[in-house]
Amino acid sequence: MNKDKKIARGASCPVKDMGGQAVMEGVMMRSGNATAVTVRRPDGTMVTKRTPFVAPKEKHPWMGKPFIRGVVNMVTMLYFGMNTLEDSTKMLGMLDEEPTKFEKWLAKKLGKGVDKIVMAVAVVLAVILSIGLFMALPAGVESLLKGTGMSVAAYTLIGGLVKILILVGYMIAVAFVPDVRRTFQYHGAEHKSVHCYDSDLDLTPGNAQTFSRLHPRCGTAFLLIVFIISILLFLLMNIFVLKNVNNYFLRLLAHLVMLPVVAGISYEVLMGLAHSTSKAARILRWPGLQMQRLTTREPDESMLECAIVSVNVVLHGLPEHAERTPEGWAILHDYRESEKGYVPPAREETKAGEEPAPQGEAN
Q1: Which residues contact 296 (CB under 8 A, 6 or more apart)?
Q2: What is the pTM of this model?
Q3: Contact in structure between 297 and 181 (CB atoms under 8 Å)
Q4: What is the pLDDT of residue 111?
Q5: What was the pLDDT predicted at 310?
Q6: Contacts for 175-180: CB closer than 8 Å, 24+ residues apart
Q7: CA dihedral 73, 78, 81, 86 (to 10 degrees)
Q8: Which of 88, 185, 196, 200 could form a disulfide with 299 if both were Cys (CB 3.0 to 4.6 A apart)?
């Protein structure tokens, strides 16, 4: 059995702290006290940046406590996820394009902070849409079914299944958008590179490509666990708290109040399943891994190179020899330029009779 099949069928992953996120034409990696974002520009070069990161639990130890850390992680990932997407857009140079008349009008009315205002509005709209689709709509379905005299277990289960069907339908639909599909490929590249790093193999596109694009710690698996945990918790709540409550808005409010509890429990379940080697854990991991088939695609070599550069940069820092953009980002032409100890060919000292290494090869 090859490694791809073994991991795809539910093998656990070593206890390491490397994780990441696909962005527009690139990959973000986070480990320890830093994050690294690498994107591939239209001219074929890779642009990478490294940002120091201090985990909330380092400042406030109580945020690292079990169950609390799940809620903190959810909020942190939402915040940094949006910032990372904005960073990748800037690094690609998309914001340097000539603004439209509407964008010029907005800039005139809102001032220099228009980008942050637009991003904030986008986040608010995304949150409203998420609450509407995954909480308000299912709560409405539950209320309607409850009015028909259906049992608590039945209408709670149907409400939960509605959430899962909406999620699956959304993932399938957005995959038809070309830019989103490419992002899903970079998502696969992120997973393969993390698998390669977790396995202590040399970080090369060839090695990374042998691994599965599915990973036990993925946020997609977390979402499925959240929905399953929410079904169980809302069943208990419907039995013991909301049994005689028919008001739709009170029931929706109860769902919103339970969200942090669901997130906290789900995070602990995800981490426990990701690092366990038991047969039961492999079985329970399987649905979450299969859900990732909707949000990942097989990457090409150039995408794997971006992911590998992000891993190297987050671990070892920006390459000192690399050319810099005005913003201080490093420009690379080959993933090997990000490896620790790499020496540019022009700086290599060659012995008599030896040819210098070709451009782009590691020392």
Answers
A1: 184, 185, 187, 188, 191, 213, 214, 220
A2: 0.80
A3: yes
A4: 59
A5: 96
A6: 175/294, 179/24
A7: -150
A8: 185
